[in-house]
Write a structure and sequence with these properties.
single chain; 7-stranded mixed sheet; 26% strand
């Protein structure tokens, strides 16, 4: 009889902070994502349960995430969000009622911007692309190849930047 094997140990994830070229809005400070992911228990009253609390509880304390935040200025995004070369319409030329997000174009541009800011993706298992405004109708999770390595990947607009949505999307 086949027994499925669960994931154990600690995996590394990087939150890459991005904003559209035509949108200067910043929904969350870079420190928000450290507080959302790493502490156990939460250190922010606006975040009742962190991503680590969620996965530790589900795994009976056998699995956790160690998260870094990357943006303008590098680790911990001291200079804020990286700027994509195009506005929202260049990646998702639709409104919130349909799916039209161009994963390839967005992810290619996001990876180029992150690398230009010094990010080395190799030590990470997952990449969470954080965007400052809506993509299309949805938040997305799955996987993506970057330089030949397969990463668990999410693409998250502001309304989904919370523990429950990240728990779902990172769980893919």
């Amino acid at each position: 009889q086949f027994e499925p094997q669960g994931v154990t140990g600690t995996r590394k994830v990087v939150f890459v902070l991005l904003r559209y070229a035509d949108d200067t809005g910043i929904p969350h400070s870079p420190g928000f994502f450290n507080n959302l992911a790493n502490p156990d228990p939460s250190v922010d009253p606006q975040i009742p349960t962190t991503i680590n609390q969620f996965f530790r509880k589900l795994s009976n304390n056998t699995f956790s995430w160690q998260a870094d935040v990357w943006g303008a200025g590098g680790l911990n995004a001291p200079d804020g969000y990286l700027v994509l070369p195009e506005g929202k319409a260049g990646y998702a030329n639709c409104n919130f009622t349909v799916s039209c997000f161009n994963f390839s174009k967005f992810t290619d541009h996001a990876v180029i911007a992150a690398k230009a800011a010094g990010l080395n993706f190799v030590p990470y298992d997952n990449v969470n692309f954080v965007i400052n405004n809506d993509l299309d109708c949805c938040a997305w999770g799955g996987s993506w190849y970057i330089d030949g390595k397969l990463y668990g990947t999410t693409w998250e607009p502001p309304w989904s930047q919370n523990t429950s949505t990240y728990g779902n999307e990172m769980g893919h």
